Amino acid sequence: MSVLGPIGLHIRRITPQIRRHKRILFRVGIPLLITVIAVQLLYPSSQALPGTRLDGQAVGGETYNQLSGRIKTGFEGADVKVQAGDKSKTLALTEIGAIVETDKMIHSLLNYALWQRLIPFSALFKPVEVSNFELSFSDEQLDSTATNLSAELSIPAEDAKLTIAEGELTTTSAKTGQKVKSKVLTETLSGGAFHFSTTTLNINAEQQYPTIKDSDITPLKAQAEEIIQRRIIIVAENGTEFIPEPGDITSWLTVITPEAAKPELAVNDEQMGIYVKKINSVVGVPPGTIKATLIDSQEVSRTSALTGLAIAEGELKEGINKALFESSEPMRIPIRMVAVPPNVTYERTYTPTQKGLSSYVTYVASSEDVRIAVSQVGGKSWSASARGEEQTVAASTYKLYVSYMLFKEISDGKLKWDSRILDTDVAGCFERMIVLSDNPCAEEFVSKFGGGAINNYLYSKGISKTTTFISKEAAQTTAVDLEKMVRGIEDSSKISGSDRTKLLDAMARQRYRAGVSAGSQGTVYNKVGFLWGYLNDAAIVRHPKGTYTIAILTKGSSWNRVADITEQIEQIMYSET
Predict the structure, then answer these.
(1) Exposed end of the chain (fewer CB within 10 Å): N or C?
(2) Residues forming beta bridges with residue 338, ordered by sequence position
(3) Please, what sign has the CA dihedral across residues 35, 40, 41, 44?
(4) What b/e readout covers 233-259, taking b as 16+ CB neighbours within 10 angstroms?
(5) Which contacts of 440-446 are long-range, i.e. CB under 8 A and separated by 24 or more positions?
């Protein structure tokens, strides 16, 4: 009997069992697979599969809105710690311009494609875990944040220093710094994988090495210590000797670093000058004071005074310098005295005359940043100006010229007082422009009329071309032009009738009264302007003894000073009339 005989017999015996198991498997397995696939097909696409995790938390069965809430809360609480060497900065993700892509993240959590659902038991293997945010970035905010972080995380290298102060030498060791480039920060932040809590990003920083090393300072300190011990004798003409103490010599030294060179010792000229002045207070003779009296800028008398004596400071400093740096031996340095002319003080008075008025105005404009033009209207008709044709910023005084143009436009029928403008009418805007010095109304009028058109109208009426509304900066004018404008209002040569009455009423009520108004004894109708340190005032003044017009344009001055100038001008014009 062959070996195959028993095997064949065994196969015949078990074949019926195999056939029975196949029938059972077919009857049970197929329905099970169909059921699993059916369950997978019917599983809601709006819910996460069981086993899905978000930031380590099970979120199976959660809907879009629930997942969105989790992501939003996590994003709001997440931050990034940017580490560069020993310095770090923690920022919220929103601060670096990050924008969470909620839809993309939820798509990753909910995505269960049809073809996947048709694979039996795929639901057991499909669930995903999302641990990082899907982000996009605002380039502008990211760049701005990177620039600021670059400055915060960078550490400048510190040079070794030799400090000389109050008789003491102090050395400070050099320190290496670091440079964090904004470009590196931008690339690292935009490419980072950000978690739901704190994400730490390490930034590569470039080392910054000091220019002046400790080894550069050591010999400098030794040189300074040697100089401080030198014996210097300063000898006055009468034989008096002055011997500087080590503390004095120390104060004369300073450390300088010429461009692209090593640090070196030099003389602190200011401190040495203090020492020389101290000696001068002992050996010098103060000069006297001459008192000169000027009437209308012409000198009429002068007192005499003694000439003084003072140390030839430059020579003495040069001698001390040589003693410090050119000789290690004790050195005697002689003092040479030089004559010092007397001081001169001026007592200025001005006569109540045309000459006195011109002299005063000229002096003020020559000694201060002031431009003045003044004219009496009637009476003796005195007038004076200084720097009066010099162009300067008009500030809000330009609104007088705008009013002039406005009256023309209304007269020509192009505008009416009740025409709408901004949130009011022309009458309301005019009131704001003059009484409140409102800028929007004035700017709206200029825009409506056109700067070039205003210029042409003003030039046709005698205003110079130095006044302009088409300057690259603010409107420009001169004291002469402004004074001419207010004089034309007062004598009706430029603005007359009801227009004149309306403008004068507004000028009388304008609220800025610290300049000409404060310095005058008369009734003042004025318009002020102030911008970038310019303080200007143009006014009609009806003084008890006469009427005059004036424009005072200043820079870097004060309203008190404008008031003082006005008061002095009135004293000259009306003290004896």
Answers:
(1) N
(2) 310
(3) positive
(4) ebebeeeeebebeeebbbbbbbbeeee
(5) 442/396, 442/398, 442/399, 442/402, 445/402, 445/405, 445/406, 445/421, 446/402
* Region at 85 (left for phi over 0; alpha for psi -120 to 50; beta for the rest): left
**Coil, strand, or helix at residue 392?**
strand
Q: Are 536 and 552 in contact (CB under 8 A)?
A: yes
Confidence of residue 1 (pLDDT cuts 50, 70, 90): very low
Q: How long is the chain?
A: 577
Tell me which CATH homologous superfamily contains domain 354-574: DD-peptidase/beta-lactamase superfamily (3.40.710.10)
Q: Where are the domains of the chain?
A: 214-345, 354-574
Q: Is the pTM of this model over 0.85?
A: no
Q: pLDDT tens digits, residue range 206-248?
A: 999 988 888 888 888 899 889 988 899 999 999 999 999 998 9
Same CATH topology for 214-345 and 354-574: the answer is: no
Mean pLDDT of 10-22: 62
Dump pLDDT digits (tens) for 390-408.
999 999 999 999 999 999 9
> What residues have CB less than 8 Å from 512, skipping those under 6 apart?
437, 528
How many angstroms separate the CA atoms of 112 and 48, rounded? 9
DSSP H or E run through 300? strand 298-302
For range 493-505, the mean pLDDT: 95
CB 468 within 8 A of CB 455: yes
Pairing assessment for the beta strands 177-179 and 232-235 based on DSSP bridges = unpaired
Q: Is the pLDDT of residue 4 over 60?
A: no
Tell me how far CA of residue 370 lies from CA of 300, 363, 373, in angstroms: 27, 10, 10
Q: What percent of the chain has pLDDT over 90?
A: 66
CATH topology of domain 214-345: Ubiquitin-like (UB roll) (3.10.20)
Over residues 376-385, the pLDDT tens digits come to: 998 899 999 9
Q: Which amino acid is at 219?
A: P
For residue 215, give the amino acid letter: S
Q: 255 has which bridge partners?
A: 265
